[in-house]
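so i finally got all the pieces together for this one. its two components total, 439 residues if u count the protein bits. some of the lines might not be protein, just check the labels. i wanna see the whole assembly predicted at once instead of chain by chain like last time, that was a mess tbh
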Amino acid sequence: MLEKSGKTPSGRILSLFEILGDWLTAPDLHVKLPAQLTAHNLLTSYLAKQATALRAANPEILAEHIALIAHNAALQTISEPNSNHLAHAKIAANALIQAQMQKEWPLPKFTLSKRAVYGAAASLFVIGLSVTSFSALVQTLAPQNIVTAIDQARNHTSSDIKAAAFESNPQNVSLSAHEAATMYAKYEQMRNGTCQFPEAIQIPDKDKAIYLENVVGGKLPANLKDLATANFYLEKVRCNFTPMLMANSVG
Amino acid sequence: MISLREKILNTASNLFQTQGINSTGVDTIVAVAGTTKMTLYKYFSSKENLILAVLEKGHQDFQTWLNDKLNASAKKPSEKLQKLFDFIEEWVTSPNFTGMGFIKASAEFPSEDNAVHQLSSEQSRQFRQYISTLAAEANIQDADGLALQLSLLFEGAVQAEQMKRGSGAIKYAKIAAKILIDGAVKAH
């Protein structure tokens, strides 16, 4: 229903609020809604996919936040049917989308050798270019993995799914769109911090290229196997997130 | 020196925020506070009353802190409205932040008949009203509408932070709030 509800990613995200409104005003359906909304992770996966297509600064957070706003507004609408919560929730969600689209977010200050800094700087161009290919990757991943996610959502609690999504397992090459989006969110978060990377000499030769290009460089991997390997090493990066005021004064 | 009642209240507040309300037993509270069940029940006749007292204190502390910050930093109502999310961000990103009492309590007590749920809803409404008053003083035409949008942003960001510390949700909420406030200012 959501997939067919808008022509653009932001249109599809915002139509969620109209669909919820329709459900809540439909006779006898409102009783079932809270149970439907507990499939929170399924909704956030879908929203994260749209947010990624939008090239939002942090699709994972945008998806999570909008799903929570929708949930809260829907619950309020159930207890106060004549309130205008969903319409205002839609306005708030739209502002959140704009907030994630309106400017370039600060880049990380890597504590690396000069060469690595140049490498990272060069790869920033690659990030810009690869966002498009990443969206394509997510699109390619989506059909069968979204079905898997739906099955998982039926069989697990949301915390199980959440734990699975953040778990890094290099042997598991069947990453879902949600996991890919999670990884992208990690890159975005790293861009806001000062990060200490493991030395490349500690990395096995077979993984070195992926480590340098996709973890240090921040380029999104081209295939699922590399994505899994990069995710494994990404977990080992330690970042400090300097308060914004300090970051501005340094910059 | 803090009173025994206050000590029990602070201990319960910390445990509720970090362990959850339902999963914190009275035995744990008295053990951590270094007192007895009898003393606890002398001050709070039931666990439910203790929860209600914790919620009331938590909400009052937050409102007082926010109000003091806003009054100290801005004089004009429009400036206060603009600064609102700066201080909310400061509060959410402080190392001591463990969540918002009424948001957590509302999730743990979903039944509308429950006294804890009712107080949580009332506090949520009070905070929305507080924003609405700020907006009305700043001559915003649809003060209630803006307050509802901002409180939805706020509660969602706090929930996201409760789920994953340092999520960054509040940073984007602050920018979104500015977009909404600027839009509302232009509209009148």
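Chain A is about 65% helix and 0% strand.
Confidence is low (pLDDT under 50) at residues 30-35, 107-175, 243-251 of chain A.
anyway lmk what u think
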